[in-house]
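2024-03-11 09:14:02 INFO worker-7 job=invfold-0412 stage=load source=structure_tokens
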């Protein structure tokens, strides 16, 4: 015969069932969640909070940039929409959420 016989070996040692044994098993998973929270979730929540406060503070006469890159001056603000004057007597209506940046005053005059 070319194959040798396999015999059962001694029983394995008892697993460490203490609290530290269980904790060390989940420690890498917990550590990855903490790192992901501080690198991804927290900055995103902070940015969303700043964006919401900027949208709430929009007023007539503010100069803004939309997500599409259109610059203009706010003419009218409603609950969900903003009317922006992109050129003399050329208003467009966009959603508030599409406004990404609030520019300093008189920025459009310098362009």
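2024-03-11 09:14:09 INFO worker-7 stage=emit residues=111
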């Amino acid at each position: 015969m070319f194959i040798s016989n396999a015999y059962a070996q001694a029983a394995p040692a008892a697993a460490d069932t203490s609290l530290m044994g269980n904790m060390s098993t989940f420690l890498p998973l917990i550590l990855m969640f903490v790192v992901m929270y501080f690198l991804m979730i927290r900055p995103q929540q902070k940015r969303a909070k700043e964006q919401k406060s900027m949208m709430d503070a929009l007023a007539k006469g503010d100069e803004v940039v939309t997500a599409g890159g259109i610059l203009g001056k706010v003419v009218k603000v409603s609950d969900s929409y903003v009317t922006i004057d992109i050129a003399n007597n050329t208003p467009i209506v966009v959603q508030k959420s599409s406004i990404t940046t609030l520019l300093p005053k008189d920025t459009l005059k310098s362009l």
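2024-03-11 09:14:09 INFO worker-7 stage=report msg="The chain is about 35% helix and 25% strand."
2024-03-11 09:14:10 INFO worker-7 job finished
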